[in-house]
TrEMBL record:
InterPro entries reported in the protein's UniProt record: Homeodomain-like_sf (IPR009057), HTH-type_TetR-like_transc_reg (IPR050109), HTH_TetR (IPR001647), Tet_transcr_reg_TetR-rel_C_sf (IPR036271)
UniProtKB keywords: DNA-binding, Transcription, Transcription regulation
Residue ranges occupied by any HTH tetR-type domain in the UniProt entry: 8-68
The protein's name in its UniProt record: HTH tetR-type domain-containing protein
Pfam families with a match to the protein in the record: TetR_N
DNA-binding residues: 31-50
Top-rank lineage group of the source organism: Bacteria
Molecular function GO labels: DNA-binding transcription factor activity; transcription cis-regulatory region binding
Length: 191
């Protein structure tokens, strides 16, 4: 396997630092000058990552969700059995969202391009849960539930989590809401 070049490593490090900054503080209030100062780089360096602050935020959001997906799938790969795999999946989504501050989530929801990235990932996650449920039904780990219906139910809750409705109605942040969803879902479909 080829080793990443210095430029590729530096770019990844910058994106990782950018993601950490945005997750911790949000992004609506930050200027490119602020971001460059906080990341200890020049604005021209930031422009090598994206052409504007908006494009930078969108690219960082994509980077965050790509990394989160890799983490989540690694957790699923370590789990054995359908119930454990679904619990691992949803719990890992919660863990991946732990670093996201309330301000980041507010800013994400208010910025359409970043919100669209979250929505695409939520949709993909719902599809993945449907696959895991269907595998569990076939394996006899789950009662014969309609996998598409169960996944649609999960997708509805996931969208409500993403849209901040669960937070507003229950006080649960996104990470805790995903963990609760995992507990309810896996307990409700056991064989």
């Amino acid at each position: 396997m080829a080793r990443p070049t210095f430029a590729t490593r530096r770019r990844t490090e910058l994106f990782d630092s950018l993601v950490a900054l945005l997750l911790a503080e949000g992004f609506a209030h930050l200027t490119l000058d602020d971001i460059a100062a906080r990341l200890r780089c020049s604005k021209s360096t930031l422009y090598t990552l994206a052409g504007s602050k908006e494009q930078l935020v969108q690219a960082a959001t994509v980077h965050f969700f790509r990394s989160a997906t890799e983490f989540v799938e690694a957790q699923v790969a370590e789990a054995s059995g359908a119930r454990a795999r679904i619990a691992a999946y949803l719990s890992a989504v919660g863990t991946a969202l732990d670093p996201a501050s309330d301000q980041f989530m507010v800013d994400l929801n208010a910025f359409a391009p970043a919100r669209a990235v979250y929505e695409r990932n939520t949709s993909a996650a719902a599809g993945r849960v449907q696959e895991l449920i269907a595998e569990g039904v076939v394996a006899g780990d789950f009662r014969d539930v309609h996998a598409a219906f169960a996944a649609d139910l999960v997708a509805t809750v996931m969208v409500r989590i993403q849209q901040r409705a669960v937070r507003e109605n229950t006080g649960l942040d996104d990470a805790d809401a995903y963990r609760e969803l995992a507990a309810i879902l896996t307990g409700g479909i056991e064989a």
